[in-house]
Amino acid sequence: MIRVLKRYMRLYKAFFYQCLKEDMIYRSNFLTLVIMDIGFVCVSIILFKVIYGHVNTIAGWTFNQSVILIGTVGIVREMAYLTFRRGFLELGNHIRTGTFDMFMVRPIASGIHLGMRHLSISESFGEGMMGVALVIYGFIHLDTWSWIIFPLYILFLLNSLMIYYGFSLIINSIVFWVVKSQELNTVVYFFMETSRYPGDIYRGIGKVIFTFIIPIGIIATVPASALTGRLGFNFAVLSLFIGISFLCAGLFVWKMSIEHYSSASG
Amino acid sequence: MKKYISLFHINWQNSLQYRFSLVVYIGGYSIYIGVLLYLWSAIYSEGQSVGNYTLSQLITYYILQLMINSIIFSFVSWDVIDNIKTGNFSNFLTKPLDYYMYWFTINISGKMLEAVFIMITAGIISIFVSDYVSFPQHLSTLIYFIISIILGIILAFEMDFCIGMITFWLTQVRTFKYMLQTMILFFAGAMLPLDLFPPLLIKLAEFLPFRYLVYFPISIYLGKVENPLPSFAILIVWIILFLVLSRILLVRGIRRYEAVGA
Amino acid sequence: MPNSIHVKELRKSFDYFRKEPGLAGSLKSLFWREKLYNEALKGISFDIAEGELVGFLGPNGAGKTTTLKILSGILYPTGGEASVLGHVPWKREPAYQKQFSIVMGQKNQLWWDLPAQESFTLNREIYEVDEAAYRHNLSELTELFDIKDLLDVPVRKLSMGQRMKCELVAALLHSPKVLFLDEPSIGLDIISQDKIINYIEEYNRLKKTTVLLTSHYMRDVERLCKRVIVINHGAIIYDGSVKDLMTTYADHKIIRLRFSSEFAGNGLGKYGEVIESDKLHAVLRTERRTIAMATSRILNDLPVDDLSVEDVEIEDVIKKIFA
């Protein structure tokens, strides 16, 4: 087990440097991407500010808490881009041109290889940076806090990454069954976009759907809740459980889809 | 004229290809509306209200906005950008085809299909959230609404075409387009109804043509516009302006394209 | 000597959907589509010993690539069995994957914008090759394939021939015991094709790697392999030595002539079987044994502007095998 972990750490390092070298060839893009990202985040903040100009709380969340929420989305996004997101965006292309076969022939798990093939530092860097800035800003304006919230925040960020990865695996697996993939990437994109809203807005059946099936209600909300002291113990444990479930479900669906691809492709 | 009709045909066929897309489409929109419904209900349930919108007006606003996004907003500029960058544009120069009309036709045919999908989707969704949807009181409101949509499609296309034309001059046009698009969406009222903005932004939005893409049609529908005719006049002026701009950019663009040697 | 590759009664069927043309067809396809089957492999069997260099020949769509994909684990067969180096390929065990390589013509595995060297280093990590072995292999391969000057050039700047060489080096860095080559010379000019074939031959001689090469160029197989398996419509129609194949079935060559002035004579028949002829061109099929003599006589006797000698089409060879 440890050996496998070590191997993948080494692989990650190797791929990271490789992708970094590739990224640096497109230097000029980097700056424009960062500026764009910052721009988008600013628009989000402005929209929230306008809403808060009319109301005091959204499902009990104050403006500062919402800022932490938006920041958290940015951080989770950047983490995803640093580990798998970009690679998965290219899955459709790989399958269409037949280059996906390469991933099946190498002695690395394809679900990881695909992600590592295109680690992206620049894609979400602006948003990640802004994310950290926003979280710090919101944090400073908090009334109460204790030291425990920091490790908890990190823990739930990692948990959210697991959920995001699992969700991506499931959604992207569909490409192996149905050829057209454009919409799928939009689905994953919207997944993160709608997670900007506090999960507390969901009630009844919505709560069930958006917590367990399409977990936009928890992916950013839970870490943000941890930081703002809103997180209850039961819900925290539940979130971890959901995280692990999504990861397992994702890996399972991915494996099954590859097997389907192996018997169906020409 | 005939060639544009067969072009319409081919593009329509292309779009019907995958039934899976339809499912994703409907599913995606339903979920998006669902999320917005929860968001605004939560806000309103705490006894707060937003601007002079009732909850159902706001929900209707967003449902309509989603519909209008697909119908009005043109995406041909992506193809135009690709076309010019890869040099395929040269093919057009050799054919007896008007570039502007070509994309206009493709845009319209694509929109027709989208419109059908959207009607089905909106119909289904509205059944489920019928409590929250408001309908226009008078027939005239509906007619004005449809007119504003049609005019909006034309204006949106022209703007998009102009953006596409920038490719002749700017290499980083995609990034530029993203930024421009966000700004347009913002001032079109696609993210939040324009009259919720702070006064300064409202004033700014009134001068810009983008409001006619989303905010204006929806306002008509919600009955917030007493007499839309003066606004129609302004809208038509904008349409003419952008048409002229499109043609100028196309002519200049071709000249530059040929000068650079593609 | 144990077999490197063992294939028995391997079958593979694909299903696909048929869509009717036109708008009505598109609408119909939204609801119901006709499912059809394509039997790509109809139960093929063969064994390849360690170190053999075998050519897998056949027209497009014959099943060559499908076979390679099954042997490399990319596809599952519908029936039959296969094992390579004692492993079942479609289990995709890392232990197996580290022992073979597959290179597909025109499908790039190298990183496009970076120099080939970088892709090599990464491959080393992927295949867990130890430092010393890697350095040794790299220098040996660089020497053998003559890519010393290409190492630091971004892959996208290389010509197709140069790229193919680098792809091959990348594939051989971990000293695979089995090498699958799928149409390695496709898209290359004649000179590059020759070079690639030479390198592969050299490598096989040195390392005794088992090589299975598919091609639809008779020339590749002729030069490189002692043994050839001919496959058509998913079935093996010949498995034996190249020499025998050539003498039995490909004992002719094609002569193409272009005349400098209009030639209305009927006398072409004495140089070979006339396939086509008009006033300015002619195509003859002549026996290999006599080709040198035939061409010199043609050049002597006839007003020829241009003459070329070509291989018989693989399709003709196959037609002959059936007949």
Q: Determine the number of helices of chain A (DSSP H or I, runs of at least 4 residues).
A: 14
Largest inter-chain contact set: A-B, 37 and 32 residues
Q: Structural class of the helix and strand makeup of chain A?
A: mainly alpha
Helix-strand sequence of chain B: HHHHHHHHHHH
Share in helix of chain B: over 70%
Task: Enumerate how many helices of chain B there are, as a single number.
Answer: 11
Termini gap of chain A: 36 Å
Average pLDDT, all residues of chain B? 84
What Rg of chain B do the Cα atoms give?
20 Å
Oligomer: heterotrimer
Instruction: Output the structural class of chain B.
Output: mainly alpha
Order of helices and strands of chain A: HHHHHHHHHHHHHH
Overall pLDDT level of chain A: 88
Which regions of chain A have little confidence, pLDDT < 50, spanning 5+ residues?
none
Can you summarize the main beta sheet of chain B? none
Using DSSP, what is the number of strands of chain A? Answer: 0
What count of domains describes the coordinates of chain A? 1
**Beta-strand fraction estimate of chain B:** under 5%
- The helical percent of chain A reads over 70%
Global geometry of chain B: globular
What does this structure look like?
The complex is a heterotrimer of chains A (266), B (262) and C (323). Chain A has one domain. The mean pLDDT of chain A is 88. Chain A is mainly α and 266 residues long. Chain A has 14 helices and no strands. In chain B, 75% of the residues lie in helices and 0% in strands. The model of chain B has no long low-confidence stretch (mean pLDDT 84). Chain C is built from eleven helices and 13 strands. The longest helix of chain C has 18 residues, at 190-207. In chain C, helix 4 runs parallel beside helix 6 and helix 5 runs antiparallel to helix 6. Chains in contact: A-B, A-C, B-C. The interface between A and B is medium-sized, with 37 and 32 residues.
